Amino acid sequence: MVQACSHRTACHQQLNIQKHEIHSICTDEGYKSEEQRRRQGQRSTHEEHLIHLMHERDEMRNDAKKNILKLQEDNGQNYDKKRKKSASIQGWRLRCNSANPVWDWPQAATKILQPLRSGESQVEGLL
């Protein structure tokens, strides 16, 4: 049976112990710190219950992670199946990737926008 200890107000104000912890710490023997209780090997049912709940929480989180990863993998596979196939890029389109309707020099625009002829290399310095 838990009895109120005489030093309740002084020791609990110093340690800022919450109300639900006061009853498990203050006994008729007096105040015991949590370290002393652990050293003696005494673990309250409240602590054991909290450890059990934390273990269950961790298991549930791991299960949720596995389920999310599985769903993401399935969604990725379905997306890849339904995705529109990309068109093959022609050589002249590669040269036109920097096309801009406003040009400072019309000659540069015509050199960049015209398709490459066989054996011709792109003019460097214009892009």
Automatic annotation (TrEMBL):
Q: Where is the composition biased (Basic and acidic residues)?
A: 29-47
Query: Where are the residues of the annotated region Disordered?
Result: 28-47
Protein's UniProt name: Uncharacterized protein
Question: What is the species of this protein?
Answer: Araneus ventricosus
